[in-house]
Amino acid sequence: MNVNYNFRFQDGRNVEFKVTDQPRAPKGNMPSWVQLDHCQCSNCPLKASAGDYCPAAIEILPVVEAFQSDDAYQKVDVTVKDDRRSYVKQTALEEALRSLLGLKMATSGCPVLAELKPMAVHHLPFANTDEFIMRTVSHYLLQQYFAKRGHQEPDWNLTGLVERNKRLQLVNQALWQRIHSVCEGDSNLKALLNFFSMASSVSFSLESQLRKLEAKMEGEGH
Question: Could you tell me if 161 and 202 are in contact, meaning their C-beta atoms sit under 8 angstroms apart?
Answer without folding.
Answer: yes
